[in-house]
Specification:
The chain is globular, with a radius of gyration of 27 Å. The two termini are about 50 Å apart. The chain has a single domain, classed as Maltoporin, Chain A (Beta Barrel), CATH 2.40.170.20. Strand 22 (about 485-495) and strand 23 form a beta hairpin. With about 800 residues, the protein is mainly beta. The strands form six sheets. It has a 23-stranded antiparallel beta sheet that branches. It contains eleven helices and 38 strands.
């Protein structure tokens, strides 16, 4: 909180600056017609309310709404980066050399885990990726939703609920809920093309998209969006100053070169979205929405130098850089029907099916144990996840009481499928088994697991008076693997005067252990003497894990408290402040490697199973997170009819590990450190910025629009070989200027991070900074990456 006083000064200064323009509250009917036609209504949100959309400033919990205009004004091609631009507390690092996480990068909200955020499409649950983030990334040991599978031209708005909502939506809604609303009736067809590249002349972005809308009877519609996105690789690796060839080789005297890739993956996405409502004359609505994404991506692993023992100089005389090149397929669709019955009851019946397949391929590599006959490209197998849901929602308003109830049936399936034999087999030429860079999944790793759950909920809202509302939500769920959970949410809102709105909530929540956490298995093979051993990650129910103390995973359980107020003297100015507190018990973590040196008993177990090291998932820690959200919105129409819109927002969050669960006794005195080591605690508490600022400004005059966005990313820490390093806070600036040539054509030019700001480099003060580490100049936890400035141009046509 050391920067809080500066934040407070900034907000007070902003309020003082805008205060001179504040007017007394005016009713719409008192405004003259010319002014009324220029009036913009307050943004609406559906999330966390089954009674229909309402003004976001009058919601019982804090909600942000990002409009389609704001989305298209950003030069970025990915929804995750767009949310990071507008939502303080939304973190989207850019990991590199982290296997699959390079290609499906996780995001977080309020400093919590990626899998503690629920994502909805048109109010229906979106499935997670099947990828397990195993390496040292933010969100290690989790599977997250891949937001970048959604074409941004298809989006009407994004609603971000900043509060726990498991009592309303079920598992995962601990840090918050992101509800993505696809474009519906009334949008014109549009096509656009974008080209951009970094200041370093890499990372070229080529994106084209088409949104086409067909209006149907009774305000029905059929909308289809197609997008092609080609994002080139970036590389900010430093030169490799290590000795490349055997000692005495004259080639070691050549200038050091860059032989690694440390930056964005080279990625091509083909995206499709459909959203449609067919409305009968009777009012019965049939609706359908669907998303499809096919991604081909490629990023580097760790380089193998010519003198590396894992290199075969007969195949790669100058060493090689393995390239991990997954093929990712992701789709989801929802179909349903809704209407209002004669007795006033609204019903909504739907079926949702979501699927993700993450198939690993490795190029420019070899299996050293197969000798000179080894292939250089491999199919390393992959993972898949499917989620199927049936929802029935009922609601009715009875005088001042609103009632909603429903039932949800869910089936989940998680699969690991093996790679080709050469990708994992241990041959006779060396002890390095499998494809270099990413050894394939073995037959013993294969998994095909299902679970079912059923949930019922009740959601009520009672308008005690015109200015006072109470609400209660309760949800019961039963899972076929771990049992039942029951959660509640209570909220209260009150307007003591017209310009002040008070709100407070308290709730409980949960997150079911993902199937990937329960069943993920990935092992490699090695040989010692005449004995073959395995090492890696074992499923919780695997005999090795159980012998080492693993037990079936329990759900994470949370408690939430939030309270705040909104000050809105008129429709052009508002200020809100909210405090939040989240306590989470039994957070699921991936243990450290358990090796034979732990104890004689552990050594015996590992030897009996022919394992050199093992790790597994466990309910490990209990944490608490608290913080504040501040929001200021201002709009002014000048005498020349130009308009300025300003949004200033700030968030502070702090997560602390309150306790660590008792480690299995078999792990001995050091068991707690084995389950949760010091670097894991630092990653929970300090690896993400504790505070962030977003200062968004849009100025419109005639056919011109100028967007200026300032972003402050707070400091963070990273651990390298036991040493902890601090990285300072940074400001970045985004700028876009657009011109509407006519009613059909618009052109925009802009830049992300226009002043070419980079995060701090690793400080050369610790003994852990080696020549190899200097290749990776920047910490992968950097919240805004390390690409520097990015410039772009966009052309759009409306028809």
């Amino acid at each position: 909180m050391k920067d809080f006083k500066y934040i407070l000064i900034l907000f007070i200064s902003s309020i003082s600056l805008f205060a001179n323009n504040l007017k007394q509250t005016e009713e719409f009917y008192k405004k003259p017609l010319p002014e009324l036609l220029k009036t913009e209504t307050e943004l609406k949100a559906d999330v966390a309310s089954r009674s229909g959309d309402r003004d976001i400033l009058l919601s019982e919990v804090p909600i942000d709404v990002i409009t389609s205009e704001q989305i298209m004004q950003s030069g970025t091609s990915e929804l995750s980066q767009i949310l990071q631009r507008f939502i303080p507390g939304f973190n989207f690092p850019r990991p590199s050399v982290t296997d699959g996480s390079d290609h499906t990068r996780p995001f977080t909200l309020r400093g919590l885990n990626p899998d503690q955020v629920l994502v909805l499409i048109n109010g229906k649950r979106l499935h997670q990726s099947s990828l397990m983030n195993i390496n040292g990334t933010i969100g290690r040991g989790t599977s997250s939703v891949d937001l970048n599978t959604i074409p941004i031209a298809a989006i009407d708005k994004v609603e971000v609920l900043r509060d726990g909502a498991a009592a309303q939506y079920g598992s995962d809604a601990i840090a918050g809920v992101i509800n993505i609303i696809l474009k519906g009736y009334g949008y014109k067809s549009k096509a656009s093309a974008t080209y951009g590249e970094t200041k370093e002349k890499d990372g070229a972005l080529k994106r084209t998209d088409l949104f086409y809308s067909i209006p149907l009877d009774y305000d029905g519609f059929f909308n289809i969006t197609a997008e092609y996105r080609d994002r080139g690789a970036t590389n900010r690796a430093g030169p490799d100053t290590r000795e490349q060839y055997p000692t005495g080789d004259p080639r070691n005297d050549l200038p050091s070169s860059v032989n690694m890739i440390y930056g964005d993956a080279d990625t091509q996405d083909k995206l499709l979205a459909i959203n449609s409502e067919v409305i009968a004359k009777s009012g019965l609505v049939f609706y359908y929405s669907g998303l499809y994404n096919s991604r081909d991506s490629e990023a580097g692993a760790f380089v193998r130098r010519p003198q590396d023992s894992r290199n075969n100089t007969n195949i790669y005389p100058d060493g090689f850089l393995p390239m991990i090149a997954p093929e990712i397929e992701d789709y989801s669709f929802t179909l349903g029907t809704k209407n209002i019955l004669n007795n006033g009851i609204k019903f909504d019946l739907s079926y949702t099916n979501g699927f993700n397949d993450f198939h690993f391929f490795v190029n420019n590599s070899h299996n050293d144990s197969l000798g000179d006959d080894s292939p250089t490209s491999f199919d390393s197998g992959g993972t898949s996840y499917r989620q199927q849901i049936i929802n029935l929602d009922l609601s009715k308003k009875i005088d001042s009481l609103f009632l909603a109830a429903g039932i949800e049936l869910k089936n989940e399936n998680y699969e690991i499928y093996k790679g080709e034999e050469a990708s994992y087999v241990l041959g006779t030429f060396s002890s390095s088994a499998g494809a270099q860079g990413f050894p394939g999944f073995q037959p013993t790793n294969e998994v095909n697991e299902d679970r079912n759950s059923v949930a019922t909920y009740l959601d009520t809202r009672y308008n005690y008076s015109k200015n006072t509302t109470f609400g209660l939500a309760s949800r019961f769920e039963n899972y076929s693997d771990f049992g039942s959970t029951f959660n509640n949410k209570l909220y209260f809102t009150h307007k003591p005067i017209d310009s002040i709105f008070l709100r407070a909530t308290t709730s409980t929540g949960f997150r079911a252990p993902s199937l990937s956490q329960s069943y993920y298995t990935s092992t490699t093979t090695q040989v010692s003497g005449t004995t073959t051993y395995q090492s890696g990650t074992f499923a919780v129910n695997h005999p090795v894990s159980k012998s080492l103390g693993a037990v079936d995973l329990k759900p994470e359980k949370s408690k939430h408290i939030s309270a705040g107020f909104v000050y809105q003297p008129n429709s052009d100015f508002s200020f809100s402040a909210d405090y939040f507190y989240v306590k989470i018990d039994d957070r699921i973590m991936l243990s450290s490697n358990i090796k034979e040196g732990v104890s004689d008993e552990v050594k015996t177990i590992l030897n009996n199973y022919k394992v050199t090291s093992a790790r597994y998932f466990t309910n490990a820690v209990n944490t608490k997170t608290d913080g504040v959200d501040l929001r200021l919105n201002y709009k002014n129409r000048f005498d020349n009819d130009s308009v300025l819109k300003t949004s200033l927002s700030y968030q502070y969050n702090s997560t602390k590990v309150k306790s660590i669960n008792t480690a299995p006794s078999i792990l001995g005195e050091d068991g707690q450190d084995i389950i949760v080591d010091s670097s894991t605690i630092i990653s929970i508490e300090n690896a993400q910025p504790k505070n962030s600022i977003k200062f968004y400004n849009q100025y419109s005059y005639n056919a011109y629009k100028v967007m200026l966005n300032l972003n402050r990313f707070g400091s963070f820490q990273s651990v390298l070989f036991g040493d902890t390093y601090e990285f300072d806070a940074k400001w970045t600036t985004d700028l876009e200027v657009s011109y509407k040539v006519n009613n059909s054509l618009h052109i925009a030019i802009g830049s992300e991070n226009i002043f070419d700001v980079y995060p701090d480099k690793w400080k050369n003060t610790g003994s852990s900074i080696t020549d190899e580490d200097k290749i990776f100049q920047y910490a992968q936890f950097s919240p805004f990456g390390y690409n520097g400035a990015f410039y772009y141009i966009r052309v759009g046509i409306t028809f």
